[in-house]
Hints:
The chain is of the alpha/beta class. It has eleven helices and 13 strands. The strands form five sheets. Strands 6-5-7-12-13 form a five-stranded parallel sheet, sandwiched between helices. Strands 1-2 form a two-stranded antiparallel ribbon. It has a two-stranded antiparallel sheet with strand order 3-4. A hairpin with a 2-residue loop joins strand 3 and strand 4 (59-64). Helix 3 (104-111) packs across helix 10 (296-313). The chain is globular and about 65 Å long.
Amino acid sequence: MIALAGGEFLLRFRPELRPARRWYVGERTSRVSRNFEADSLTGWRLKAHRSFVWKLGGDSATYSSNAQGMRAAEDFPDTCGGRRIVMVGDSFFFGSGIAFERTIGAQLADSLSHRFNVYNVAMPGFGTDQMWMSLRHNALALCPDLIVVGFVDDDWNRSLTAFRTVEGMTKPTFVLEGDSLRPQRPSDKPGALKSMVLHHSAIWRAIEVVSRRLSYRTGRGEWFGVNAAMIEAMARDARAKGSSILFVRLPARDGWRSTPALRRTLARISTPYIDLADPSVARSDIHLPDDSHLNALGDAYVAGKIAEWIRSARPETAGKSQR
């Protein structure tokens, strides 16, 4: 008992090993937000036709939403037509800390000489599960030729909780049963003893962190299994509607790790992938000061890499005729 108590005490000095609360369906309800509203399908979105200023990393930017509650200069069309790219992701694709005209989506449209209409359905705080739901319910409704899914590693952690403390809202959460995903139910919540360990033990948190790091290579465990299954589901959903899909791992400031298990998963389903988090290819001057998000130069870097891939790897998409 003394050894366990000592271990708990010492591990809590490591920020990454401090216990993180994992919420289950039914444990929390969404609180009221000034600029965001709950969405039963994806968790949340911007309030329609809302404009506000948000300061991040020492810089302020204005955020404006369209009728669909997305960060955009215009309302999205309700009919198909023309060549279209839809961006799906979290705050990096959303453009947190960046003026709209300098976000990844806007700079991608510029890089492609506006031969494509680029629409962005990304939302800050989204996990892999919310990206899947956003692809299914928002992106595919726009009849895209190409869907670009951008993620950072932390998005995978968000997929295991039904409530986001930062946003103060509930979100869709899924459980992997065999090879199938199903929505999490209140009955999936563990018993009192296991809940106490999950929520309060630094030793258990250390075991989780080590297990997840191993999963990058082995592809084993709940954390990797659930997220990989959702990535495969996104690829299936896109192809079922005749859309191409590209996954992009975005460059976070710290903590890059090789992800051979993810590469194997995407190779097995013949899905293209760009890893821009690899320090051998990523630039070092592309983040906001005192924040992990990309600055305008970082957004231009990512947009340029995506445009380069479209031009070289998918010529049939870049030259696709109008529907």
